[in-house]
Amino acid sequence: MSDILRAPNPELFKAVPPSSRAALPRLWNGVWKHGLLAAATLAATAAITLGLPDVVPWGSAGLFAILTGTAALVFLALAFSVHRLGRVGRTLLHYGPWFAAIGVWLALWELSTAKTGWLPKPFFSPPHGLLNVYVSESQRLLICIAYSLRLWSAGFLSGIAVGYVLGIALGWSKRFSYWGMPVLKLIGPVPATAWIPCTFYFFPNTFDASVFIVALASGIPVAILTASGVAAVNRSFYDVSRIFGASNWYLIRNIAVPASLPHVFVGLFMGLYYSFAVLVVAEMLGAKYGLGWYIQFQTAYSGYANVYATLLIMSLICAGIVKLLFVLRDRLLTWQKGFI
Length: 340
Description:
Blueprint: H1 2-6, H2 10-14, H3 18-29, H4 33-51, H5 61-79, H6 87-94, H7 96-115, H8 127-136, H9 138-172, H10 174-187, H11 196-202, H12 206-231, H13 235-243, H14 248-282, H15 291-300, H16 304-332
Helix pairs in contact: 4-5, 4-7, 5-8, 8-16, 9-10, 9-12, 9-14, 9-15, 11-12, 12-14, 14-15, 14-16, 15-16
């Protein structure tokens, strides 16, 4: 018996087909490793949330464990099927390391806040503390989101519209640029929030004053970069068009504006970030609702979990708008593909 265990019988291996011996490595090579890691880390987060007691009660711990556990099961299923999902699967594969990192981050976040108290309340909140804010304050947050989007859209759209027209005029007309560009360079470096005292005098209500501040923050970078784009257009394009009888309006509409669009989109991205930066301050001018107002209200009562939850909402909204701008840019600037 000991001789049999020490020296395996070669005939046993001959009985196993080579295709069966290679099936297991092929199966493992087809598994999405980052998906398995994401499933493991999210399952660990769910186990930590339910298995360890909270130092201070936060609420919604069970719901958070259900969500993370469900996400772990989804990633476990995707680990064996992601290659069959086409374009969606390729996107998941690209962000695979991020999914795994998010699971690790949530687990460490839970341990350092709710479970050990190393980052204490009220200054820090665990993930299920933020979730509890969304559950308990959902109605008020939805109203604040609607108010903030109304204010931001009015200010941002009016600011980029005025800034775009002003930028075309500055880039096209040397005389207008001679007088306008020094004024724009003088106003541009000044933070938009520094003009708050003037807004109270020139605007009849706080909403209009807030719209002006957001518009100023978003319109100045659009104006400067649009002017730079129009001024940078090759003059030979204009000369050739004038030979064929093109008018100034034709040159602006069909040459200057399309050629300046790359600069315009850079200004739009900058204006977007600046406008969100001043949105919080703009809603402190007397607004009754809005994400900025909500942050100020909760900060006064040390509701920092609510503050963090609101900041996360603002980040997601801004990221979504940035994504839409990227899609719009790619559609309008398809002629750049292959050149840049």
